[in-house]
Amino acid sequence: MKKILTAIALSLTSLVALSHSLTVGENLPQVTITDKGFVDLVDGDFEYRQWTSAELQNKIILIQHIAGRSSAKELNEPMIDAIIAADFPFEKYNTATLVNLDESIWGTGAIVASQVKNNKEEFPDAIFVLDSDGDMRKTWALTEKSSAIILLDQAGKILYVKDGEMNPTEIDTVIGIINANI
User: Fold this and answer.
1) How far is CA 107 from each of CA 39, 65, 67, 103, rounded to the nearest angstrom?
2) How many CB atoms lie within 10 A of CB 166?
3) What does the UniProt keyword field contain (predicted)?
């Protein structure tokens, strides 16, 4: 009975880990964000423009897709801290933070958007996108109220994907893949 329960538990864990629709070696499925979108800082003012995931090319790009809530942001802060510490050259690497405002706690959407704007001021070369309708999470079948890390090569092919919190070994793996590809 113990072996059967263990097998069931492992099967369920595998299903949860593979709940997304993203596959290493394939292109990231395209999504276009029309409500909010790309956050740009122009002459000290913030502007939004329509954005498409097809823009994520020509560099190694680490995507952090997060629900618009602090608990989701905290899940993969160690990954982002490792990226900042690695100080990859901007000519070859960029980070894209894609925020699902549809999963913000009621009444906090403006606060989340303000935090993204603050981050854009601190990291003006990084990509920030606000998704009001949750289109990316739905298209990529990512876990609700969570954080996902997706690493793309210069052509937009997926090099690594993890839906949920990353452990130190996984973080080291991503840093190694980036180093090998820049």
Assistant:
1) 20, 21, 14, 11
2) 20
3) Signal
- Enter the DSSP assignment of 54: G
Backbone angles phi, psi at 73, to 5 degrees: -60, -40
For 15-40, the pLDDT digits (tens) are: 444 456 799 999 999 999 998 999 99
Distance between terminal CA atoms of the chain?
A: 50
The tokens for 26 are: 């394939």
Answer yes or no: are the C-beta atoms of 133 and 164 closer than 8 Å.
no
Could you tell me which of 144, 160, 170 has the C-alpha nearest to residue 24?
160
Contact 150, 158 (CB under 8 A): yes
pTM of the model: 0.84
CATH superfamily of 2-181: Glutaredoxin (3.40.30.10)
**Helices assigned H by DSSP within the chain:** 2-17, 70-75, 77-86, 109-122, 135-140, 168-181
Contact 158, 26 (CB under 8 A): yes
